């Protein structure tokens, strides 16, 4: 398990390096990444070119942080954070070949956390040999 600090604002955090370290030397198989939180997800996206900010903007457009949500504890609009995992699932599975992540050229494994109420997240990594 790794701990990721996301802070008190919506965030996309690249965890590819940690995932790569985890599978290093493992051989062929699958890496399963799981976030045991009701208000966060895992995405395979390009980072560093603005795509991470674009993703957060798209989440805001699709799931506005306003008072429409029935789930009302936490900060205003927090109910939308509980809907997020239906759109950005709390897991991803990535092929591993010879102990290396078999990601596409521009793909990164990212924790997506729109919930500023929880500044620290746990991510579970599992290797399934193949």
Can you put this structure into words, describing what you see?
InterPro entries: UPF0047_YjbQ-like (IPR001602), YjbQ-like_sf (IPR035917). This is Secondary thiamine-phosphate synthase enzyme. It is built from three helices and eight strands; from the N terminus they run E-E-H-E-E-H-H-E-E-E-E. The chain is of the alpha+beta class. It has one domain: Jelly Rolls, CATH 2.60.120. A five-stranded antiparallel beta sheet has the order 1-8-3-5-6, covered by helices on one side. Strands 2-7-4 form a three-stranded antiparallel beta sheet, with helices on both faces. A hairpin with a 2-residue loop joins strand 5 and strand 6. The longest helix is centred in the middle third of the chain and has 12 residues, at 51-62. The chain is elongated, with a radius of gyration of 15 Å. The two termini are 21 Å apart. The model has no long low-confidence stretch (mean pLDDT 94).
């Amino acid at each position: 398990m790794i701990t990721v600090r996301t802070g008190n604002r919506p965030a996309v955090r690249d965890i590819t390096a940690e995932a790569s370290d985890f599978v290093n030397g493992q051989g062929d198989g699958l890496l399963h990444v799981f976030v045991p939180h009701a208000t966060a997800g895992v995405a395979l996206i390009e980072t560093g070119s603005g795509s991470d900010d674009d993703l957060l903007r798209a989440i805001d457009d699709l799931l506005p942080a306003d008072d429409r949500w029935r789930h009302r504890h936490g900060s205003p609009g927090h109910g939308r954070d509980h809907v997020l995992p239906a759109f950005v699932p709390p897991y991803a599975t990535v092929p591993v070949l010879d102990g290396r992540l078999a990601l596409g050229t521009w793909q990164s494994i990212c924790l997506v956390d729109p919930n500023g109420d929880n500044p620290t997240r746990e991510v579970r990594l599992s290797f399934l040999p193949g």
